[in-house]
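A further point concerns the way the authors explain their paired sequence and structure data. Nothing conveys this as quickly as seeing an actual entry. An entry of this sort, consisting of the sequence and the corresponding backbone structure tokens, reads as follows:
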Amino acid sequence: MGRASRRRGDAVDGVLLLDKPHGASSNAALQRARRLLNAAKAGHAGTLDPMASGLLPVLLGEATKFSQLLLDADKAYETTLSLGVTTTTGDVEGEVLSRREVMVDEDAIRSACARFVGEIEQVPPMYSALKHQGKALYEYARQGVEIERKARRVNIREIEVLEIAPGSVSLRVRCSKGTYIRTLGQDIGEALGCGAHLSALRRTAAGPLSLDTAITVDAIEAMPAEQRSGLLLPVDTLVAHFTEVRLDVAAAERFRLGQAVEAEGHAIEGETCRVYGESFLGLGQWRAGRMQPQRLVAQAQEA
């Protein structure tokens, strides 16, 4: 895998691990980071609600071509449930719907959480960005309109109880794409018989990327401009889980032009691989014993 971000002239390509603060929208954080890195093209791999904080992978330039890989990847979160109170949004920002007495112990909490590990059905919340007739569900919710939603199957890989305090419980959750942690918190609260809402939510991982090395936008802004590009991970960070294939100079040039080429390696029909010449060229797929270009990146030189 490459060790540096790529530049194509003045273009900026790479992956920035951003630690989004509580209260900021994902798009606002993205746009600030894009301007600070002087990148023409940017996107993120999975929205975080304003009330949530944590890992927001920002993809710059050619890295945006691989955003779907992160969108489809498992995520990890740390969250705190406030027990005994339900809200309209399922989190601390909503209006209170009900208050109930909390009469649960550690065994009950662990048992309730265990019930939701594995494949489960979730009904997306009204306060979400899902679209209905071209309009986000939260827009209907703010108007007091309830839209019928179909349950979706998601996979809760793991729920770890981190801390139990009077009236609250902190959890670490690892889950598949499409999981709503607010809905999970509400469902756990109902399983306990007291109701619950999220008082805190922090994303700690997305696929292979971790919050451990993420940086805040404020910290980027405080850095000298010439040092900021050093924060970027290379584009091929996003495809490191694919088998690597190396091409000689002639084959790399043909591959770059969209032609299938002969390549060394164990050809498994249909397998996707990350392909390199002197630098990362993109993704290819074995077809009839040849490496067929699948998703190419614009050629670059090391920054």
